[in-house]
């Protein structure tokens, strides 16, 4: 009987060694997997701002009676339409507009509608009439808002160093400004020189050196600058009145593609795009409080414009909307328009 006892014991020892070897192999495999994932580079890709829980805004379809007077211009199905802010009356113009190819820039008492082709340029006046362009307005390749009702015009904005000319409503050019890199509007009629190293004011000239970061939102009284380092981003508000910049406590994501500041820098509307999803976030500059979030499928930065420091006009889910930031209400007027964009505002 003794040999049988030894065989059973040997079998148990063999099975124990097998389990021991299997455990060692599993430990090595798990260790290699952990090492592989922990040795990867940290994710430093742009991160969206968290979507906060906010109460639903009151919604109506009645055209508001307390909008500032003026004309809202909106591209729709290949044409520019003029919407009277007094009563919401929609009037078609003969000016063509295509959302991906058309831009609108304030000029004089109207809005210059322009695109890549120089043949389809016109000025829609504040009364809804349309006027042709002449002079530098006809020959320039790109435009940016200028001071006192003028525009900045460039012949070849794609070169490393570009000359921008100040042009009035009659097409007459005057002041010339040379800009390194790309040119951008500062929101108040000035020009910013933008390069990989940062940006600086090209007009008016400033004692400030080139600043690091990029400008993500502009308004008539300031702009918002973003600076990022080691995966963290900070946002500061620059006031055109030359006051010290202030750090913003606002839920702005690192993947912000552009935005606009209301007059007096009271509120900020920024577009954030993550993957195929874009949202427009409206917040209070002083506190960072999120007022409202709108879906913007195209992620366009030209689909929102402040009418004053209270009302924001925007395009969301292919609808024209008006947002009252003071009373937190959304107006979705029953206007017969589709395939919307871009959007512009001309005060009366």
TrEMBL record:
Alphabetically ordered keywords of this record: Membrane, Transmembrane, Transmembrane helix
Transmembrane segments: 19-38
Name the UniProt record assigns to this protein: PQQ-like domain-containing protein
């Amino acid at each position: 009987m003794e040999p049988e006892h030894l065989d059973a014991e040997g079998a148990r020892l063999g099975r124990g060694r097998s389990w021991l070897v299997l455990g060692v192999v599993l430990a090595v495999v798990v260790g290699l997997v952990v090492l592989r994932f922990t040795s990867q580079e940290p994710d430093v890709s742009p991160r969206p701002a968290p979507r906060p829980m906010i109460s639903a805004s009151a919604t109506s379809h009645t055209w508001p009676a307390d909008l500032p007077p003026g004309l809202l211009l909106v591209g729709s199905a290949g044409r520019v339409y003029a919407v009277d802010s007094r009563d919401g009356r929609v009037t078609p113009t003969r000016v063509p507009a295509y959302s991906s190819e058309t831009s609108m820039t304030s000029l004089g008492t109207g809005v210059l509608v322009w695109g890549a082709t120089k043949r389809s340029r016109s000025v829609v006046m504040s009364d809804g009439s349309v006027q042709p362009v002449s002079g530098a307005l006809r020959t320039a390749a790109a435009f940016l808002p200028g001071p006192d009702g003028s525009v900045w015009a460039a012949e070849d904005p794609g070169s490393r160093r570009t000359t921008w000319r100040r042009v009035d409503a009659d097409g007459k050019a005057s002041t010339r400004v040379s800009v390194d890199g790309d040119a951008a509007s500062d929101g108040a009629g000035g020009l910013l020189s933008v390069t990989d190293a940062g940006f600086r004011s090209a007009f008016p000239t400033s004692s400030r050196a080139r600043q690091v970061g990029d400008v993500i939102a502009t308004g008539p009284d300031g702009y918002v600058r973003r600076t990022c380092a080691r995966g963290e981003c900070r946002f500061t508000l620059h006031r055109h009145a030359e006051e010290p910049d202030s750090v913003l406590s606002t839920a702005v994501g690192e993947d912000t593609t552009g935005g606009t500041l209301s007059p007096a820098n009271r509120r900020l509307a920024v577009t954030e795009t993550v993957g195929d999803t874009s949202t427009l976030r409206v917040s209070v500059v002083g506190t960072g409080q999120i007022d409202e979030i709108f879906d913007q499928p195209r992620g366009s930065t030209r689909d929102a414009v402040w009418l004053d420091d209270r009302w924001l006009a925007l395009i969301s889910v292919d609808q024209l909307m008006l947002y009252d930031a003071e009373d937190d209400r959304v107006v979705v007027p029953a206007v017969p328009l589709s395939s919307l964009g871009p959007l512009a505002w001309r005060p009366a």
